[in-house]
Amino acid sequence: MTVRVRIAPSPTGDPHVGTAYIAMLNWCFARSQGGSFVLRLEDTDQTRCSDASAQAILDALRWLGLDWDEGPDIGGKRGPYVQSQRQAQGIYAQYAQQLVDQGDAYPCFCTSAELTAMREQQIASKSSFIGYDGRYRDYDPEQARQRIANGEPYVIRMKAPQVGVFSYRDRLRKDSVEKRWEEIDDQVLLKADGWPTYHLAAVVDDALMGITHVIRAEEWLGSLPKHIWLGERLGFALPEYIHVGLLRNPDKSKISKRKNPTNLLWYKQQGFLPQALLNFLALLGHSHPQEREYFDRDELLRIFDLDRLSVGGPVFDRVKLTHLQGLWLRDFSDADLKAEMHRCLDERLDELLPLLRPRMTFGGDVTWLADFVFSDNVEPHLETLIPKGWDAAATAQALEHIQAAFNKGIKKDALAWEADSLESCVRGLMETHGWKPKQCFSALRVAVTGRNQSPPLFDTMAVVGQHRVLPRLAQAIERLKRVR
Ligand code: GLU
Prior knowledge:
The protein has 484 residues and is mainly alpha-helical. The protein has helices at 17-32, 51-63, 83-88, 91-102, 112-124, 141-149, 198-208, 224-233, 264-269, 274-281, 297-303, 318-330, 334-356, 366-369, 371-374, 382-385, 392-411, 419-433, 437-449, 457-464, 466-481; strands spanning 4-7, 36-39, 105-108, 155-158, 165-168, 177-180, 188-190, 213-217, 240-244.
C-alpha cells in the first residue's frame, strides 16, 4: 500500500503551532514510508475562513520545510484541494443524496428556535442526552418532498444507529475507543445553505483523495464513530484513523494563545529558526531512539516511528525550544549567521523605524535603542522600577492591576494588542485608582523595557508584543514583592 496522508487546516485565523505539529507528523510518516503528503483546505465555514489565512498557513508550513506533494497551490491528480471549490462542483451534495436515497440520511425541518427549545427542555428535565432528538428520522418522505418543493429550509442529517456500541482500535491507544450509539446524535451533514459540514466533507474528501491514514489531534476522537459510519455507508475504503495528544501549556491545559504564543508567524518574527522549531516539534510525544535531542530533518526521517508516539499530551516548553534554537544558531557558518542577523533585523525594521527615527544618530543605534525588542528578558534595577513617590508595594499593586486588566481583555478577546487600546486600558485604570501618569507610566516603562527612557510607551509595548510584555510584568511584580 502506498501511504497517502494529509493535513487539512481550516483557514480561520493565524497559522497555529498545533497545525504545524500535526503536519509534521503526517509529513514524517509520508516521507519515511515513501508515500505522499497532501494539503487540503477545509473552508466550508465560509463566515470564518479567509484567503489571507489560507495563504499564511501555506507560507508558514513551507517556511518550516514541510513540503507537500499535492495541494491548492500546486494541484495534483485528486484536486481541487480546497473544499469550497469542491463544493462548487457539487461533490458533497451528491454523497448526501446517496445517503438519503439509501435511507442513511434524512431531511430535517427543525428551525433554530425549535432546536433551542428542545435543548432547554432536555436540560430542564435533566435528560441524559442533550442534542437533536431525531424527530424527523421517520418523517413521511412524501411530505418532506412537498415541503422541500415549497421552498422550506431544511438540513440533511445522518440517520445514526440508535443501539449497539461503536468500537475502534486506534494503534496508539491501549484500550479500544468505545461509545454507545444512543449517545451520538444525528449529525447535520448538509446545512440549510447547501454547504456540507466538516464531517461529511472530510469523510468524502479523505476517500476521494485516497487517504490511507488520517493522523490528527485527539479532539476529533469524539467524531470518529460518525466518520467511520459515514465512510462505511458510502462504501468507501476506510483510512486508518490515528489520534495524537493535544499540545499543552506548561500547566497541562490545552495550548492556548493566552499562555503560549500559538501563531507560527510569531516564532518567525522573533527570530526562531525553522530548523529549531521543527526539531522541537519532533520531540513532542516522540523521541530519538538514542535519546538525542538535537537532530536535523534527514535524521528525523530516519528515526521517525509513528508507533512510538505517546498520546499523553506533550508540553510545549518554550525554554526547551529556546535551548534548541541556540544550538542551531551557534552551529551556523559565519556567512549563514550574518545572513540570519540581517534577517532578524529586517523582519522588525518596518515597525521599529517610526519609533527609533527621532532618537537615532547612527544606523547602528538600533542595537542599543531597541535591545528590549529582541532580548528574551529585561532586568530592570529595582531603584528604577520603583518610581519616585511610590514604594515597592504600591508599584507591584499597580502593575498587578495592569496585568490583570490585560489578561482579562485578552481572555475575552476584547483587547487588541495595539497602542491605542493598550493606552485606553491603562488610562482607565489610572482614573479608577487615582494614579498619577508620571508614576504609572514610569513603572510600566521600566518593567517592559528595563530602562526609564524609551520611545513612546504604548507604541513600544505594541511592538514588544503581548508574549514578551506579560512575562516581563509578571517578573517585575515578583521582584517587587520580594522587597521588604
Ligand atoms: N479542518 C480540521 C481542522 O482544522 C481537520 C480535522 C481533521 O484532520 O480531520 O482541525
